[in-house]
Each structure stands twice: as C-alpha cells, then as structure tokens.
Design goal:
The protein has 589 residues and is mainly alpha-helical. Helix content is 73%, strand content 1%. The protein has a two-stranded antiparallel ribbon with strand order 1-2. The termini are far apart.
C-alpha cells in the first residue's frame, strides 16, 4: 500500500473524532465508541494486528481511563468540599478585593495559577484545580473549561517537573545510539543535550505564549459575555500582555539556567508574585466602573451550565481567609513536594505500584501508581479540610455524594476514548508490516512537505498529543522521527525536536479526553465538541506561529531572514496588532 494511502487511513480515527464531536456536535459518550471501532477495524483489517494485541491495548486504555476517573473524582470532591464548608465564599471575596473584573480574574487563575499547577503536576491537573475554582467564583462551567484548555499550551512542555522533555523526548531519542553519538560530537553530555532542546522549546513558547492570556479573555467575552463582544476582551490588552510577560520572561530565564524541571513552576509562581500586588495597585487595570462581568445567571445559555451547576454553600459557616485558602495551598505544596526528584517524597509516593505486565500474554504493560496520582492528593486534602473547616458530617457526606453523581456521566466517554488512543498507538508490528498509525501519518505528511516540514512539524506533534492526551506520549512517539526528518532536510534537527515538543504542548488545547475530564470536574458533559470548536483557533495559531518561527530559524543560514517562515510570523504579528488597535479604538465597558 502506498505511503499516501496509509497516511489517509491513519487519519481516519482523527477525522471520525472531528466529524462526530466538532461538526455534528455529538456528545463524547456517543461519538467515542464509534471512533474506537474505527481504530479497531483499521488495526485488525488494514494493519493486520492480532486480535489479542488489540484487546490488550484496549484493556490498558481502560486502566488508564480508571486512573483519569480517579483524578476527576478527587478534583470534584475537593471543589464540593470547599462549597459545603463555606470556604468558596471567602475565596470569592479574595478576588473581589483584587478586582470584580472577570477578565482579570481569569488571567490570574487560569494563566498564572494554572501554569504553576501544570508545572507541578501536569497531565491535565490544571483543569482539575483551576477550572473548578473559576466555577466556584461564579464563571459559567463552559467558560471555565474553555479557559482551562487554552492555557494548557505554553506551560505544558515543562509540566510535571519537565516530564515531556525528561521522559518524552529522552525516551524518544535515547533509544538510537546515533543520536547519542550526535550529542557527543557536538560537545554535549546527554542531560545538557536535553536541556538545550528544552531551551529552544522555551524560546518558541515564550513567543507564542505572549498572546495566550489575551486569547483567553477575548474568547471568553465573545462567547460568554452579554454583548458577545471581542472588544470587551481586547480592552484589557495591556494587562493581558503584562501578565504574559510576567510569566514567560522568568520561564525563559529558568529554562536557560535551571533546566526543564522548573520553567512552568517558577514562571507561574513568579508571575503570581508580580501580578497580584501590582493589580491591587491598579497597574494596567481597567477602572472599577468599567469592570466586566457575565450576564445574570438566569440569562445564561443552559449549555454553559451542564447537568450540575455548583451553587454557593448554604452552610452559613464563616472562615478566615487563610483557613479558606489552605486547601489550595496544601494541594499546590503537595504537588510540588511529590513531583521533584530532588525530594524523597517522590520515590516514596511512586514506590507503591500495581503492575499490569504482559496483558493477555502480550508485550503491553502498564504500572499504576495510585499514591502518585493527583487524585490521591485531592482526596487527602479534602479529608484534611473536613477537620480543618470543622464541617458537619452531613455536609461532608453531601460533598461525596454530589461528586460521585457528577463523575458518572464522564465514565462512558473516557472508557472508549483512552482505549481508542491505545489501539491507535499500538498498531505497529502487525502482519501487514506497517509502522504504527501515528508514524504512518507523520511519514506521509513529511513526504508531501519536504523542506517546508518545520511549519508542519508542530501540527504533527499537536495531533499526537490531541489523540494521545499527552505531550509526553506525543514526544515519545515522534521525537526520533522528527530528529531524522531534520537530518534528511539538512537543517539543525534539535530545532525540529523542539518544534515537536511545542506542537505537542499546543495539542493539549484540543485534546478530547482532556476536554472530557475537565468538563466532568464541573458537571459539564456532552458538549466536548462545542468546547473544541472554541479552542481550535488557539491550537492553529500556536502551531502555525511556532512552526513559522522554527522554519525561519532553521533556514536562516541558507535562505536569509526574508523567508516563508518569517513572512508568516510577521503576518500573524501584524494581524494581532491590527486587531488590538481596531478593537480598542472604541472603548467599551
């Protein structure tokens, strides 16, 4: 079978997801079983993978889905615990003291706090922490999920203390002795070689990440505002850029001098330290009389709320500000303490393993580390909150019951989504002798693009992450392939790997099972395609801009500064400036 036909067939599961979820707007619980069957049919009848291997891959997918459901349950439980204890009332008051403006609140919580949590734990945890916090503050659940998905871009390459680089790129490249030799020939020890790739990725992220806070607020005011206006979001462009630089500049410096473990953790934390005090002093802030808010709750579209809306607690309890915030402070502290390899807690928490080796007698394995999953931290903090906030047992029982009911609708979607991913990834080695579907897809695209590959490399990384649900997994699948393509087109292959890592991070903004998980945390199930339609423009911007910048960099020595990549990047920049100028020419309230 031709390379082009294999690439088209490999794309079918992704096309099925796009058609059913995005175009037809089916709920994931209905669409993903069909998409799973498409992947299984391709694996069995085209790739000729043995049925037992397909079954084993599916079982591994179910195990991973159960892990995700455990994380979702923990996040929902913590949110409901804070609602029932009355803590969320005080947390709302905290942000009201800074500003009642929802545009500023979403930047601080989603962009800065979310980046810190991504750097600490990764794997969708920001959605499990920041999204419910936004809902607790009074944001429509769909708006909160959209914001939580959009910010899962810039910090993701350095999420979970650098896992996408230290595990993803490392695993993808280190298996080839030729690349180890390449690093040595260029004067790098392996750790320094990975650090160099990480820094190149950070440069690309810092460029594209500049506009992410502005994307968050403009899409929020356009889709969820009373006036459905882009202008109302653009009105805070100064603050959005200020918050962007407050995170990306420290992020870039840390990537250069401390390595891939810390850019997102310290970038988000330093950004919070800079932005919150200066926001209180009015820096780049809209005037109080121009503060923006959502329309009255009674006027919200029912689709924004979903099956369960979180309402303010009626417990009547009063808590001090520090006591109310303590659960989130504990979550942040425990995520950092259990993720840094320099500390003993990581080995302790990850040392408890439930092994699933040789599933159905195949080579497919999976190790579950229940104590290391963020769900455990959420549940532990929820239990601490029960005592810390002196909750009535009746209210705490209500939190558990509400959490279980909210989680159930997400189960069907995830139980088919993740197995589809596993069949897609584990489709190599069949009787037909084809490479697995992701590599077949990438190879076909590379054959078509030739020297223009850098522009497309980010999209391949993004599609890998969108399907697999992980920048780390995308990097594992494609890093070696991307390096080899860089060598074939005679450019610096480390920049191509950096583009892969950046594209993989951007792919999280449209990742199906991340959207399902984030939606489930706030009781919003069945609208996954609607959310992806809103975040798709962010993914396209991010992958296209970084791909264009990467093209300009790798071809600079041969084609000069004025090349196709530079042209695309400049056009994107000019378009952004024009939109801001036009959008703010007439001030809005």
């Amino acid at each position: 079978m031709s390379m082009g036909m294999l690439a088209v067939l490999s794309l079918l599961p992704i096309i099925a997801v796009a058609v059913f979820l995005v175009v037809l707007r089916w709920p994931a619980s209905r669409a993903m079983p069909i998409c799973y069957l498409v992947a299984v049919a391709l694996a069995l009848f085209v790739w000729q993978v043995e049925g037992v291997l397909v079954a084993a891959a599916s079982i591994r997918g179910v195990i991973v889905a159960v892990e995700l459901l455990y994380i979702i349950f923990g996040a929902i439980l913590l949110l409901n615990t804070l609602e029932e204890s009355g803590a969320m009332q005080q947390i709302r008051a905290t942000f009201s003291d800074i500003t009642p403006d929802r545009r500023i609140q979403v930047i601080i919580i989603a962009w800065l706090f979310g980046s810190f949590i991504e750097g600490s734990a990764g794997f969708g945890t920001p959605a499990a922490v920041a999204v419910p916090l936004l809902v607790g503050l009074g944001f429509p659940p769909m708006a909160a999920v959209m914001a939580g998905m959009i910010i899962q871009s810039t910090p993701v390459t350095f999420g979970a203390a650098g896992t996408p680089i230290l595990t993803g790129v490392n695993t993808g490249l280190s298996a080839d002795p030729a690349i180890l030799a390449y690093a040595t020939e260029h004067g790098y020890e392996w750790a320094a070689f990975l650090g160099m790739i990480a820094f190149k990725a950070a440069i690309l992220h810092a460029i594209a990440g500049t506009l992410i806070p502005l994307f968050v607020v403009t899409l929020m005011t356009r889709f969820f505002g009373k006036n459905r206006s882009f202008r109302e979001g653009l009105a805070v462009w100064r603050f959005a850029l200020f918050a962007a630089f407050a995170m990306t500049i420290p992020y870039l410096i840390v990537a250069r001098f401390l390595g891939p473990e810390f850019p997102s953790i310290l970038g988000g934390l330093i950004g919070l330290i800079i932005v919150i005090p200066l926001a209180k002093r009015g820096w780049f802030m809209p005037r109080e009389e121009h503060a923006w808010d959502f329309d009255k709750r009674d006027n919200w579209d029912p689709d924004w709320i979903g099956r369960q809306d979180h309402v303010a607690s009626t417990s009547g309890s009063t808590l001090g500000m520090l006591t109310a915030w303590m659960p989130y402070l504990l979550v942040a502290a425990l995520l950092v303490l259990t993720r840094l390899s320099q500390l003993p807690l990581k080995s302790l928490m990850s040392g408890v393993v439930i092994p699933f080796h040789g599933i159905l007698g195949t080579t497919i394995n999976h190790d579950t580390k229940p104590l290391f999953l963020p769900g455990t931290i959420f549940i532990v903090v929820s239990l601490i909150t029960f005592f810390l906030h002196r909750m009535q047992p009746r209210l705490y029982a209500t939190a558990w019951l509400r959490s279980a009911k909210t989680m159930i609708p997400a189960s069907v979607a995830l139980v088919f989504t993740v197995p589809m991913v596993q069949v897609f990834i584990n489709s190599g080695g069949g009787g037909a002798g084809y490479a697995n579907m992701p590599i077949a897809l990438a190879t076909g695209v590379e054959a078509l693009t030739g020297g223009a590959w850098p522009i497309f490399s980010t999209f391949i990384g993004g599609i890998g992450a969108a399907v697999a649900g992980s920048n780390t997994v995308s990097n594992m699948m494609f890093s070696l392939f991307q390096f080899e393509v860089g060598q074939r087109i005679l450019v610096d292959p480390t920049w191509i790997v950096a583009l892969q890592a950046v594209g993989g991070a951007a792919g999280n903004t449209i990742c199906v099972h991340n959207v399902v998980a984030a939606s489930a945390v706030v009781g919003l199930v069945g609208k996954e395609g609607v959310i992806i339609r809103k975040t798709l423009v962010v993914f396209t911007y991010y992958a296209l801009l970084t791909g264009a910048v990467g093209y300009s960099i790798v071809w600079f020595s041969k084609k000069g500064l004025f090349n196709m990549g530079t042209l695309i990047a400049v056009l994107i920049g000019i378009t952004a400036i024009a939109i801001i100028r036009i959008g703010t020419r007439q001030k809005t309230t």
